[in-house]
Design goal:
The complex is a heterotetramer, with 2 copies of chain A (617 residues) and 2 copies of chain B (333 residues).
Chain A: E1 13-15, E2 18-26, H1 31-44, E3 48-54, E4 69-77, E5 90-93, H2 96-102, E6 111-115, H3 121-126, E7 143-147, H4 149-156, H5 164-168, H6 171-182, H7 188-197, H8 202-220, E8 228-230, E9 241-246, H9 247-261, E10 266-270, H10 277-284, E11 292-295, H11 299-311, E12 315-320, H12 322-338, E13 342-348, H13 365-370, E14 380-382, H14 386-403, E15 406-412, H15 413-417, E16 419-423, E17 468-470, H16 484-500, E18 516-523, H17 527-539, E19 544-549, E20 551-553, H18 559-564, E21 566-573, H19 578-586, E22 592-596, H20 605-616
Parallel strand pairs in A: 1-8, 2-5, 5-6, 6-7, 10-11, 10-12, 12-13, 13-15, 14-15, 18-19, 18-21, 21-22
Antiparallel strand pairs in A: 2-4, 3-4, 9-16, 14-20
Chain B: H1 27-42, E1 49-53, E2 68-71, H2 77-87, E3 92-98, H3 99-105, H4 107-116, E4 121-126, H5 161-167, E5 172-177, H6 181-193, E6 198-203, H7 215-218, H8 223-226, E7 227-230, E8 237-238, E9 244-249, E10 252-256, H9 272-278, E11 288-295, H10 301-316, H11 321-325, E12 330-332
Parallel strand pairs in B: 1-2, 1-3, 3-4, 4-6, 5-6, 7-11
Antiparallel strand pairs in B: 5-11, 8-9, 9-10
Classes of the chains: A alpha/beta (617), B alpha/beta (333).
The complex binds thiamine diphosphate (2 copies), iron/sulfur cluster (2 copies) and magnesium ion (2 copies).
């Protein structure tokens, strides 16, 4: 049953600027692979792009059910884009559950590709549907392309000897082929990827490649579509070598880079937790870079192992997410007290408590900046996108070793699993900051301070420099001290050391005019959507500018001046307004408007646009 | 080739400039002296030695040692020591802890460091009390202990520390007592020489909050009759006259003539003999075992982790940052 | 006096209205069915039953039980269950956990709940993997396990879960397997009837990340020859033909004729026999033991805590707030 | 060698309004007992008083050393007082270490009583003194009373058969007797206390009583002093029944009271930690009140056991200090998520990390209000003095059960170990707030909400009401939900529930005028010193008023109006300015001046007075 299809002599090739596709299907359907292949190929053809994977919470929810639906949205464009798009132009729905879960977000008049092979009685039942949504009017108003992908794949692979189960597993590549044709993408990158991926089972290489081509050809022989499209390569992308990268991967690479620039061995202590686990897994694969990974018994042991490694003269690192951060609280205090470098990566997810582990939120900000017993200041940085992770990870390492302090590096689920083209740095643009261990016994002030306020780092094993450190308050020699004045002085020194980091930070750059009605202020993974909002506002002639904070504590210099240029400062956050509250306490004389969102989903452009319009009304 | 003699050191070389601040009469003094004495005798290098501890009276130990020292947080020393030893296998890492620090709040890290068999030496000062917080019962206090937080007596069954650590796959397990420096010195040596995690329980007198709790077995006058020293390769015989023997029968320990006594072997792959012995004092009429319950060679985490790194480097070459960054599918714009 | 018969219940009475969401084929389904079946047969009252769990695939269990349920945080269920049971000794408390939840992050609470012998029933689903976080090795994975976080193989020696819990003074210790509902049912009954903490390790198939890890011993065809079921009062005999026996000799297990086999007694005060048996499968050629390793009556924390309160009330009368506030030296202004 | 003593026929009895005495000696000297006996007796004669015990950090530092010095300061007065006093009028120094450690704080011209029996060569050496401070001019300018207390006690007890060690142990009661004479206190309360304390060893009762009387008589027979003093009873104390109480004890009693008013059994899960341990120890003695105490394996288990108990329908309680709070962070999040009542008592000490466990600080405020992963709001209350602990503990229990929420109750080391007269409440003035468990199966919204925003509390064991709760986000029935709108709604509901508590709180009362130049704003244990500062300012005619916050989150109503009446709001805190930062973020249009102090010691009156003067200058 193929509908909406007419045979015309030649299908027109239309150029479009940007397209949003959402792939949706059962988590067993290989949706994430389909999405990431489409991403890779689009990156290679030179589009700008942004992605939003959406996993089910369960490992394998029962096939065909609504909780089992896995989604992957990509926006790709011939001009700059910054978000995966609010509403998809095309929805590919591999089963009824995927259709009903996603349909309401498809653009009016958008294209709906459905795999009718999965719309049988029992499929509808699994999705808890009484009626077939393809037949009850639900899909009216959309351009519906019905393909029995199951059948088509079976036919295409009829001659292969692999099991019918294995054949069925190829259907995502058929789907991908269809989309490649529709948007004029080359097959080669995926063909190559398949050859590599299944190199131990050549029959699977063949089958998947055949399915991909069959899907492509199905489009080509005009079976289905009225026209096909071309999204040209972005001209605005700066020249350079690019690579497609996921956030957690780029973070891992950046941390290795940071340790190398510091001339230290990287030692990760970690306990698996969604969505941070892949950082551990990635770093476990970097042993040839001298990286050591310790999968500890819990988050407390993980940070403690990292502290032990830093004490031993390596760069200690620990990676986790919200509940794990909570557990590390006490040990963070120890690292502050003994003034050892340490990087603490928090890939945030939706809370409180276990919350929604596979959803995004920026709600660990307060915990990071203020959530420890005692006066326990610690620098906090935030990654804003996969392609920014490398640089921010290096920055975290730099601050940690130069200031002898633990540093919190915030990421989130959206960055962690999102992918985008990353313009690779020139290697010699990376400025090393090698650590010099202190080894002069004639000058043994363990808590003496250099011009930055940092204490010397003394390597255990250095003859003649034996000393003791610990969590009790201590004097400048490291010995326990209950002296009142000493505690006052040490507390101040610890605070000033951290505040002084601000001096080394650049003043944030303003996108747009330095004066105006509204300053959009964001941090972390909202960068894309805020850029888009800014552009829309500018297009409308609104006096809106934008800055994005990469350093959350200490705050970068120059904010007072920047804020003075605007009537209102709009702070959209994926939490209940944490940064806004912090800014109000630091800057008393400006008008901060908080725009909180806590649905576990990223902002949509129009949600913020609406708020800007409201403020300007 | 002759090795150069290590510089001769004395106990003094291991004493820091900090005043020792335990209560007068505390068993910790004797242990400190024994450790310093052992280190001097063994020619240990203070600069290569790190003493890590948690929190408790016992955990103040590092401040008094003229080595590197890290007084960490309550219960977490095993995790910190693991990170340190994995990062720096060249350092000699000692861990000082108390019954509260290691068996209460630190229980999880203790069992895991033992399982991993990280090459460090753990000395657990067991005074069956929380000393530093002024005398609450601990997980090693016997049922019925009346202390500040248990005015009607404690009702939780204590751990048998040695059974707990044997259950955690410990490879070296021993017990000694603060008041017997000769025995303690021997045990420290064996523990330190063992490759892998060594766990030594040292019964320690807290004169303030749990004075002489161990005296029934450990008082000098009764010690020979009330304790049995487990020594590898020697028959399990005790008594002032060495007139009492022990042997196994059907997974039980029974008394026997000294000539029929079991010859002690702590080095088999099976830790059940040590486990059985560790429970001995709960059996009526049986002595309290001290000495070495287990001494077995096994895979060491610190060594293995580092050798995987070496293997990876050997296989793929020393990783270079550019390759890492420019890996995978790249393209030019 | 005749007791009223409990209402007859079926498995359905223990099924909640929530859709079960483990991966198709996961061993958790079979365990869920066995537990529900056992509860129905035993006439358990769903309203008096609380299922507490930590975090993990296994720990989703409470949502599928039509009883009271508390899905808590990772590793902490034993502590929460302790508070609950001490506060409400009238409730029947079950604790569901995984190898990661209980032996990794939750290790400390596990060993302490066992030591305290709180009267609850713990089912530990051991699939030797972290299922929920998508397949990292766990503290029960054998050395050399190649998974996501250990691309060159794990190097830490695993726990032997049963030795760990025996080392923690557990009073009831057993092992069964998801795929043998008959055996599992028997063990559930014994565990539930035991007064004190019952610990049951259930080998559980994670079809996604550690498929059939246990098949060498547990596959139906080899099971009789590769496992030995420890049953109180019965000889330790196994094999399809029940032609193989085991007995103790000098703290070792050795093969023997069925007629010479040891008669199993898990109920002595000494837990060393169970400990030795728990290590059996590490001995070449020996079967994997299942069944009951220990079943021993001891002091229960929940009961004792409450009886101290009763004693205090009996002695001083039900405390009254006014007396508390107006206690000690008072004076009038 | 007794100096400064002249024999006159009759010693004058002078009336004075207020006196500050500091007892100082070796921690083995029984200084804390001496101090608390003086306190009790002064309370009974009707003085107002405030105390400041100062323990050594070590259990038993070597006798005679400086770190082994234990101190106890008391101010007692015939009029209202609020602090233990800045500088003592009288210093009792039992050994050279005690002298040198404390001398610099003695008032110029003040009285110094020294036990010369402990000023031998070896005593000086232990205190690291080259010369005898009694002879090198150090004590010039003070009225020095030298008594060989060791000798005097030996003589006084010569006929007793107890060991000489036991005799020596009586010297603190001799000293106490001296002071009783000097300030005209009755001996009876202490004689009675001794009889009770040593009831099993009558020979010690006799010895200590004899020593006390000997000391008193030594004063009386005019051996030493020029005059003696009388401090009359305070007339301003409201009438009622009084009892002397320490902070931790009053807190414990208040928590029992709270549970009884809620008609629930109190179940404490705790792990010992200084300075909170005595709450556990006190409650362990209240078994006849049905109180259950669980000494858990760590702080995490402690709070979890309390959560388990609350789940079971008891009032769960956990008590700790800073590092323990840090460890409880994750579990607090669970309690917020499942919305169970719970009281979390944090007896603060100086941080960060292990810090200075025996010293005071108020630096866990941020951790308490903001230090958790996710948006995880929790009410925070603060006790301000021992006599306030009872009421605040009840208030914490009330909020916990009425709003189905964990509540943090802050205290600190100064309150915990301080003692003062407590005017006992009339029992029928205590308003019960009995809990009604929900037991109607026909209405089973586990996360439905009443008019306060609280969910129903359903007791496990109730037939027909079986349900599940957990840390994953859940819908109103308690079932797991990843629905975006549900998460937004639940997050809002949790936040509003807590913010709404403010509606039930009284507007803070202002001490002084509603308009002025400076508003002194404090919280917690600074209440006494701030009251004193206020009084001094008023006396000087400065336009200063004062409020003290008992609820830190949510903040009480009416603050905006109050703040509007003042030019500056001065916020002295024993931390680096945490409340000040919080207030700035909540109240944008006021001028908050932070006065931080982090020496581990309470504020001295003049430190704050100076700041007030500076602001007004
Ligand atoms: C997180 C935390 N919890 C509690 C404490 C308080 N504390 C310090 S030491 C200790 C127990 C010490 O007992 P043990 O390890 O037996 O040492 P001991 O003093 O007996 O040598 C406790 C509970 C702390 N410092 N940190
Ligand atoms: C504090 C915290 N740390 C980590 C996690 C992530 N986490 C969830 S379940 C799990 C391991 C589960 O393993 P196991 O107990 O064996 O359960 P299984 O899924 O195998 O049944 C981990 C690491 C978490 N939820 N919370
Ligand atoms: S309290 Fe006990 S353990 Fe601590 S120093 Fe004193 S005697 Fe030793
Ligand atoms: S991941 Fe494994 S343990 Fe988890 S539900 Fe799936 S099969 Fe079961
Ligand atoms: Mg101890
Ligand atoms: Mg598992």
């Amino acid at each position: 049953m193929t509908s909406n299809s007419e045979s015309t002599q030649e299908l027109p090739l239309q150029q479009v600027d940007r397209v949003v596709i959402r792939f949706a299907g059962d988590s067993g359907d290989g949706i994430q692979i389909t999405g990431s292949q489409f991403t890779m190929t689009s990156a290679i053809v030179g589009n700008d792009l942004a992605t939003l994977p959406d996993f089910p919470a369960e490992i394998r929810a029962p096939a065909g059910t609504r909780p089992g639906v896995s989604g992957f949205q990509i926006q790709f464009s011939s001009s700059d884009i910054h978000t995966p798009g609010d509403a998809p132009d095309v929805l590919v729905a591999m089963n009824p559950a995927a259709l009903v879960v996603n349909l309401k977000e498809l653009k009016p008049g958008g294209t709906l590709v459905v795999n009718t092979g999965n719309f049988k009685e029992q499929d509808l039942r699994k999705a808890k549907l009484d009626k077939n949504p393809l037949e009850d009017g639900s899909v009216d108003g959309y351009r519906v392309i019905e393909v029995d992908i199951n059948e088509r794949v079976k036919e295409a692979l009829a001659e292969l000897t692999i099991s019918s189960k294995d054949k069925e597993r190829c259907k995502n590549f058929y789907t991908l082929g269809l989309m490649y044709w529709l948007y004029s993408r080359p097959l080669e990158p995926t063909l190559k990827w398949l050859a590599d991926k299944f190199k131990r089972t050549p029959e699977l290489v063949e089958a998947n490649q055949m399915a991909l081509k069959a899907g492509y050809n199905a489009g080509d022989i005009r079976e289905l579509f009225h026209s096909h499209y071309e999204v040209l390569k972005t001209e605005s992308m700066p020249p350079g070598t690019y690579r497609n990268v996921m956030g957690n991967q780029a973070t891992a690479i950046g941390l290795v880079a940071g340790s190398k620039l510091a001339n230290l061995r990287l030692v990760l202590g970690s306990y698996p937790i969604t969505p941070a686990s892949t950082v551990l897994e990635t770093l476990a694969g970097y042993k040839s870079h001298g990286v050591i990974t310790i999968q500890a018994e819990d988050e407390i042991a993980a940070i403690c192992a990292a502290i032990g490694a830093s004490y031993g003269g390596c760069l200690g690192l620990t990676s986790t997410s919200g509940p794990g951060m909570a557990l590390k609280t006490e040990a963070m205090g120890l690292a502050v007290a003994v003034e050892l470098p340490l990087v603490i990566l928090d890939v945030q997810r939706a809370g409180p408590s276990t919350g929604m582990p596979t959803k995004v939120e920026q709600s660990d900000l307060f915990q990071s900046i203020l959530g420890r017993n005692g006066d326990t200041p610690m620098p906090v940085l935030a990654i804003s996108r996969p392609s920014d992770a490398f640089e921010m990870a290096i920055e975290a390492c730099r601050i940690a070793v130069q200031y002898m302090t633990p540093v919190i590096l915030l990421s989130d689920n959206y960055i962690a699993n999102g992918a985008e083209p990353w313009r690779l740095p020139e290697m010699d643009s990376l400025k090393p900051f090698p650590v010099h261990f202190h080894d002069d016994p004639s000058n043994m002030e363990v808590f003496g301070r250099n011009e930055l306020g940092a204490r010397p780092w003394i390597l255990p094993g250095t003859p003649g420099m034996e000393h003791r450190i610990g969590g009790l308050e201590r004097d400048s020699k490291g010995n326990v001290s209950y002296d009142p004045d000493n505690h006052q002085r040490m507390t101040l020194e610890r605070q000033n050391k951290i505040l002084n980091i601000a001096k080394t930070l650049p003043k944030p750059t303003i996108q747009g005019e330095a004066q105006g009605d509204v300053l959009l202020l964001g941090w972390g993974s909202t960068v894309g959507v805020l850029t888009r909002v800014f552009e829309e506002a500018k297009a409308k002639g609104q006096k809106v500018s934008r800055i994005h904070l990469r350093h959350l504590w200490p705050l970068p210099p120059g904010l007072e001046d920047i804020f003075a240029g605007f009537k209102k400062i709009l702070v959209p956050e994926l939490n209940m307004g944490q940064l806004a509250r912090l800014l109000r306490s630091e800057f008393q004389h400006h008008d901060f408007v908080s725009l909180p969102k806590v649905t576990g989903q990223p902002f949509l452009t129009h949600e913020i646009v609406k708020e800007v319009d409201r403020i300007l009304a | 080739m002759t090795l150069q003699d290590p510089p001769k050191r004395t106990r003094k070389d291991f004493q820091s400039d900090q005043e020792v601040r335990w209560c007068p009469g505390c068993g910790d003094y004797a242990i400190l002296a024994s450790v310093q004495k052992y280190m001097a005798e063994a020619g240990v290098d203070p600069a290569k030695t790190v003493v890590v501890s948690g929190i408790g009276c016992s955990s103040r130990f590092p401040y008094y040692m003229n080595t590197y020292g890290f007084h960490t947080i309550h219960g977490r020393a095993p995790a910190i020591a693991t990170g340190l030893k994995v990062a720096r296998p060249d350092l000699d890492v000692w861990l000082i802890t108390g019954d509260g620090d290691s068996m209460s709040i630190g229980g999880n890290h203790l069992i895991h460091v033992l399982r991993r068999n990280v090459n460090i030496t753990i000395l657990m000062f067991n005074n069956e009390i929380y000393g530093l917080t002024k005398g609450q019962y601990s997980p090693t206090s016997p049922v019925g202990t009346v202390k500040k937080s248990t005015p009607m007596g404690s009702v939780d069954r204590p751990f048998n520390p040695l059974q707990l650590v044997l259950g955690s796959q410990a490879t070296f397990v021993a017990r000694s007592v603060d008041a017997d420096p000769g025995h303690l010195g021997k045990i420290l040596k064996a523990a330190h020489e063992h490759q892998g995690t060594s766990f030594v329980e040292i019964l320690q007198n807290c004169v303030i909050f749990n004075k002489d709790f161990y005296k029934d077995a450990m008082e000098r006058s009764v010690r020979p009759d009330k304790t049995v020293d487990l020594v590898a390769g020697e028959p399990v015989v005790y008594g002032k006259e060495r007139d009492k023997g022990l042997r196994f029968h059907d997974m039980q320990v029974e008394a026997c003539a000294p000539g029929d006594a079991l010859v002690w072997n702590p080095s088999g792959p099976n830790s059940a003999p040590g486990f059985l012995m560790a429970g001995l004092s709960e059996q009526a009429g049986m002595p309290t075992p001290i000495g070495i319950f287990r001494d077995y060679q096994a895979l060491r985490y610190d060594t293995e982790v580092n050798s995987q790194v070496q293997k990876a480097v050997a296989k793929s070459g020393q990783g270079n940052l550019k390759d890492l960054v420019y890996a995978g599918e790249t393209w030019q714009v």
